[in-house]
Specification:
Layout: E1 11-17, E2 20-26, E3 35-37, E4 87-94, E5 100-106, E6 115-120, E7 136-141, E8 144-148, E9 154-156, E10 166-168, E11 179-185, E12 187-189, H1 196-199, E13 200-202, H2 205-214, E14 220-224, E15 230-234, E16 240-243, E17 249-256, H3 265-272, H4 276-311, H5 316-319, E18 329-330, H6 333-339, E19 346-350, E20 353-359, E21 365-370, H7 378-389, E22 399-405, E23 408-414, H8 422-425, H9 438-458, E24 473-475, E25 481-483, H10 488-491, E26 504-508, H11 514-517, H12 524-540, H13 556-566, H14 569-572, H15 582-595, H16 606-614, E27 637-641
Parallel strand pairs: 7-16, 18-22
Antiparallel strand pairs: 1-2, 2-3, 4-5, 5-6, 7-8, 9-10, 11-17, 12-16, 13-15, 14-15, 14-17, 19-20, 20-21, 21-23, 22-23, 24-25, 26-27
Enzyme class: transferase
EC number: 2.7.11.1
GO cellular component, one term: membrane
Length: 696
């Protein structure tokens, strides 16, 4: 037979008779079935490997394994061994659970050895695409992956094998007009890269659910709460899902009729417990406990009421602060009036209202913010306050309490001695004593990035700040940066606090991202843009929108890039700084230019910003940022109306850059070639994520 080019091709062969093999399958297959002959004189270079025999062409180097993994005859030496000294050989196997693994064998006294796993392609088995079959959900029980169905609207295809997947008890086609969406918290439907082009959109949670419900082809969707706002629509069917308490995603799947969630483990255990005596004991204990709590509560309330009459100044909630540490305290408006001496000592004013210094009854010094333009009711306002107060991070200002009385809406924060960052950055040159040395500036930049990263990527729900600027970065006595005013953007929306793209959001001139000004949906990348401007100001000590003869009539941010392009890094750095770390300065400048890229997809996520500043990953030289048109507003704070439909989609096509070069190669680089959007997505979607990509 004529020789067949086999380089780079994986074949599945079967021996039809001695020295002749029939090809069953090939990675680059042809429509013609071929029969190959092998042997010492064969023109076709094949190395067959079957059962336990050694190939005639192996020259004593290749060994085969039978299904029991017993080792064949071994009388050879390997030229290279990357394993331990007692490893004889390794083999690669695609196991029946869909995972690719490498195994090693060690020598034993009888010529055989133990088989041990040394590597797996996917360490988290629940992330293996299709592990639980069609419409199956993978989760962990006692550290082992188990497969189940999304809800009681489904049933397993095979009751004895959960990996066979699930099916609807009633198909969607059989219930026209009665289709609803089942919501699954902390659940992600795995996505395979070829599916991404038609699936990836940027939506809010309600729009992600509604779009799927209205779609004639979509059956499920997943919203990733990592700050990207990505919504993945599954068409026509999902393959398998992953459910875990730490997954930052919410998924939806179509069901016929009312969605019936799976019972919790407690409910399942209760259903199996038919011991009436046991039930009576439980009821008796619960009733006795409740009665005791009522008695204690009445006595405690009487004590509090008595103390309140004596002091007359503290609210009941404030007296309880020692018993409910960390919970926000509800103050009366009169209490805060007294604490601030009639709101007489003004600390400053931002886009959300003025801030006053106050002293509480326990002598704690606080900053009281009077919110303006709040139209929410008390219940909704309290829910938003609860969200803000649940965020705890070293680099976030702590919320002490609130006031929600009549039309008054106030927030009470911890007081930070050194005030806001702008007072140190933008002082006149003759006030050098108030300037910050480089070590403090770099730590402030890094701390601010960590605080924003926590809001975007580590909270249960992504919190977009919408007003990152030096005035909202406060410094304690040790000059530790603490981000303030986070979570307030949602308080300003009287219609639907879940969609920032539907709100009249307040931003600040010089820090607004281009897509914000273009009425596109607001994502976490808007905060990244604002942070980039702040980072440039930390390095330079000048406003990013400053225009002066020194900057040749250009905005400072654009002039700074031209100096960076020429290699004049020292021209950008604040002249008041005596000693600087040139490597840290270079990293900070390049990170700032990446953050202020025009296209959101070119900007890194905040978690990657932290890694770049820390020097964990290298940074490519950034392309030139384009100027953003911000209108003719003369004030510092402006209002941008984003009346965009919640069903609108927005995903910039320009990809994020890679980060392979070191900082020492300072200079501009051409834009990186366009990549598939899928490479920027979560690894939980079955995709690989570049370790050096700022946006991954």
């Amino acid at each position: 037979m004529a020789p067949v080019p086999l380089f780079g091709t994986l074949l599945l062969l079967t021996e039809v008779f001695h020295m002749r093999l029939l090809m069953i399958w090939a990675t680059f297959s042809s429509s013609i079935t071929k029969v190959f002959q092998y042997g010492p004189r064969s023109r076709t270079r094949l190395i067959p490997w079957f059962l336990h025999r050694i190939s005639p062409l192996s020259n004593g180097i290749l060994v085969g394994l039978d299904p029991s993994f017993a080792r064949g005859m071994i009388n050879m030496a390997f030229t290279t061994d990357y394993g331990e000294s007692n490893d004889v050989f390794r083999f690669l196997r695609m196991d029946n659970d869909g995972n690719l693994r490498i195994y090693s064998s060690s020598t034993g006294n009888n010529g055989s050895g133990n088989i041990t796993q040394t590597w797996a392609a996917v360490t988290d088995q629940c992330q293996v695409y299709g592990f639980c079959g069609n419409m199956g959900i993978c989760s962990y029980k006692d550290s082992k992956p188990v497969c189940g169905c999304p809800s009681q609207n489904f049933e397993p295809v095979n009751e004895h094998d959960g990996r066979k997947g699930c099916k609807r008890k009633v198909e969607i086609e059989d219930c026209p007009g009665d289709v609803t969406m089942l919501q699954l918290e902390h659940t992600m439907f795995l996505t395979y890269p070829p599916e991404l082009s038609d699936q990836l959109v940027t939506l809010a949670i309600v729009a992600c659910r509604t779009n799927c419900l209205a779609s004639s082809t979509g059956t499920a969707s997943t919203l990733v709460a990592d700050g990207s706002g990505f919504c993945y629509l599954k068409t026509p069917d999902l393959v398998s899902g992953y459910q875990g308490a730490v997954l930052p995603s919410t998924s939806f799947i179509k069901v016929c009729g009312q969605a019936i969630p799976n019972p919790s483990p407690y409910q399942e255990a209760s259903a199996k417990d038919n011991d009436s005596l046991h039930t009576m004991v439980i009821v008796s204990v619960v009733m006795a406990s409740l009665l005791a709590l009522v008695v204690v509560g009445i006595g405690f309330w009487c004590l509090l009421y008595s103390n309140r009459n004596k002091s007359g100044r503290m609210s009941v909630q404030y007296e309880l602060v020692d018993y409910a540490s960390g919970a926000p305290v509800k103050f009366s408006y009169r209490e805060l009036q007294q604490s601030t001496k009639g709101f007489s000592e003004r600390l400053g004013e931002g886009g959300f209202g003025a801030v006053y210094k106050g002293t509480l009854a326990n002598r704690m010094v606080v900053a009281v913010k009077q919110l303006e333009g709040i139209e929410q009711g008390e219940r909704q306002f309290r829910m938003e306050v609860a969200t803000i107060s649940s965020t705890h991070h070293l680099n976030l200002v702590r919320l002490v309490g609130f006031c929600c009385e009549g039309r008054h809406r106030l927030l009470v924060y911890e007081f930070l001695k050194n005030g806001s960052l702008d007072k140190f950055l933008f002082t006149s040159k003759d006030q050098s004593g108030k300037s910050l040395k480089w070590e403090n500036r770099f730590n402030i930049a890094l701390g601010t990035a960590r605080g924003i990263t926590y809001l975007h990527e580590e909270c249960r729900d992504c919190i977009i700040h919408c007003d990152i600027k030096p005035e909202n970065i406060l410094l304690d006595e040790a000059y530790t940066a603490k981000v303030s005013d986070f979570g307030l953007a949602r308080l300003m929306n009287p219609k639907d606090h879940r969609h920032l793209s539907l709100a009249s959001i307040r931003g600040t001139r010089g820090y607004l991202a281009p897509e914000w000004l273009a009425n596109h949906p607001i994502t976490s990348k808007c905060d990244v843009y604002s942070y980039g401007m702040v980072l440039l100001e930390i390095v330079s000590g000048r406003r990013n929108f400053e225009v002066s003869p020194e900057t040749d009539g250009k905005k400072f941010s654009l002039w700074a890039y031209s100096e960076f392009e020429k290699g004049h890094i020292e021209a950008i750095v604040d002249k008041r700084i005596k000693d600087v770390d040139s490597e840290e300065v270079g990293r900070a400048i390049m990170v700032s230019f990446w953050c202020i890229q025009e296209q959101p997809s070119r900007r890194p996520m905040m978690g990657k910003v932290v890694q770049m500043l820390e020097g964990v990953i290298d940074i490519d030289s950034p392309p030139a940022p384009k100027p953003a048109v911000e209108g003719s507003s003369r004030g510092t704070t402006i209002t941008v109306n984003s009346n965009v439909s919640g069903l609108s989609t927005y995903a910039a096509s320009t990809p994020a850059p890679s980060s392979s070069s070191s900082f020492m190669n300072i200079g501009p680089s051409p834009p990186t070639p366009e990549r598939e959007m899928g490479k920027e997505s979560s690894s939980l979607l079955g995709l690989k994520r570049s370790e050096t990509d700022p946006d991954s």
